[in-house]
Amino acid sequence: MKRYHVTTFGCQMNEHDSERMKGMLESLGYGEAGAAEDADVILFNTCSIREKADSRFLAHLGHAKRLKREDPERIVGVGGCWAQSVKDEVFARFPFVDVAFGPGQVHKLAEFLTSDSLTAQGFFEFEGFTGHLPDKRAREFQAWVQISVGCNCRCSYCIVPSTRGREVSRPAGELVAEVARLAGEGVREVTLLGQNVNSYGRDLRGGRDGATSFAELLTQLDAIEGIERIRYTSPHPKDMREDVILAHAQLPSVCEHIHLPLQSGSSRILKAMRRTYTRERYMDRVALIREHVPDAAITTDIIVGFPGETEDDFAQTLEVCEQVGYDGAFTFIFSPRRGTEAGGFTEGLVAHEEKVERMQRLVELVQRRATERAQRFVGRELEVLVEGASRTDPSRLRGRSRHNKAVNFSGLAAPGELVPVRITGATSQTLTGELSLLAAASSAG
Ligand code: SAH
Ligand code: SF4
Ligand code: F3S
Known about the structure:
- The chain is an alpha/beta fold.
- It has four domains: 3-123, Rossmann fold (3-Layer(aba) Sandwich), CATH 3.40.50.12160; 137-255, Transcription Regulator spoIIAA, CATH 3.30.750.210; 259-373, Transcription Regulator spoIIAA, CATH 3.30.750; 378-444, CATH 2.40.50.140.
- Helices cover 35% and strands 22% of the residues.
- The chain has 14 helices and 19 strands.
- The chain has helices spanning 12-27, 51-70, 81-86, 89-93, 108-114, 160-164, 172-184, 214-222, 242-250, 267-272, 279-292, 311-324, 352-374, 436-444; strands spanning 3-8, 31-32, 41-46, 75-80, 99-101, 121-123, 142-146, 148-149, 168-169, 189-193, 229-233, 257-259, 297-304, 328-333, 381-389, 397-401, 406-410, 418-426, 430-435.
- The strands form five sheets. It has a six-stranded parallel beta sheet with strand order 2-1-3-4-5-6, with helices on both faces. Strands 15-16-17-19-18 form a five-stranded mixed barrel. Strands 7-10-11 form a three-stranded parallel beta sheet, sandwiched between helices.
- Helix 8 runs parallel beside helix 9 (242-250), helix 9 (242-250) packs parallel to helix 11 and helix 12 packs parallel to helix 13.
- The longest helix has 23 residues, at 352-374.
- It is globular and about 60 Å long.
- The N and C termini lie far apart (56 Å).
- S-adenosyl-L-homocysteine is lined by residues 49-50, 157-158, 160, 195, 234, 236, 261, 263, 301, 303, 332, 334-335, 337.
- FE3-S4 cluster is lined by residues 10-11, 13-14, 47-49, 80-81, 159-160, 163-164.
């Protein structure tokens, strides 16, 4: 049997595309190899969101080059956003690469592998959904569902619109059928994926599914028997309508967690980023969430050191973080990307040491607020979806609450089970606790 190995970089979208690549390869009769050394087909699913993502991947590609030299029969393939952003250049720069393809061309990999062609080929049109390919899920009870591809926003720092193309939504009927099938296979939690999930369906308007908005899609998916949890990522603050927030309050399976990327707390910087909302409008959305879903966890993405960011702009980001009290935040140092508007900015560049120093202050504040926020869970009983053994202590279990908090706890339960856990401790990142049944039994005895 021929074997493949896939290394994945980047976001959940890429993780999911890799599941589809694996499913497709297995349907062609390939088996998964534990390491690239043992594979006939070595694949990389790449990311280009920040410079670090590029350099990490290029280090891996050097390893593949050595393996190809040892055995020239091996096939080396490069897919994903980095491949899309350099397109055919990849063959000039890395002559040992056999096949390269963008995120919209994953299906062409099968065509390439089954053809007799020995020449290197690149596939870079925006045309397909990986959602149409078979998948090989990492976990039986959790699944990603791609609801749209591409992005119509023009955030000035971001490479994604050029690597994933214009936004295209999948018809609601198709998504409902996919989730119903997943439920039938034992999936209890789905995460809906898109670059801007809450603009879902706008491109379908006028079509047969024209009436379906993101909130309506949530309603249809919530009705599917067996699906206990629905998550989604990422929404855009500009499209965060009240109906979506109400879905969190009213639909039992929609989780009490909203990831609402802020990027900056300064309206001036938001404008330069072309985010199309102000600090006030963002805080309005937060107020609406607090009003309808007071217990919801809110998390965010923040960029530090965008060109032109002054100490005053940065202070405003800190202020917003203090006011919102995020349950968690992903923080990034601005990284100029090829082909983007901000990648070409030459004025107001923030010195590296300044960026690092701001980042430290931001992380400190975010962690302090997250720790404070997490204390609300102590003493409560939370529903946890069991994922397996704890990473730090194999005698304990690990899972996630509906708020998307990692929970380490004692007790016996199988992966995929939803169990009640009594929370006894909380840090910025994790909760600790014990299975409630066990707690009840031991206190009774
Ligand atoms: N579509 C999603 C995710 C985009 S990428 C969204 O809009 O939220 C995830 C995060 O990476 C972004 O939210 C942003 O915070 C960060 N990011 C994107 N481009 C970046 C860049 N050039 N430099 C630093 N961080 C960046
Ligand atoms: Fe990038 Fe902005 Fe689109 Fe997100 S919304 S993918 S940050 S362009
Ligand atoms: Fe994701 Fe990276 Fe592409 S974050 S969309 S894989 S550039």
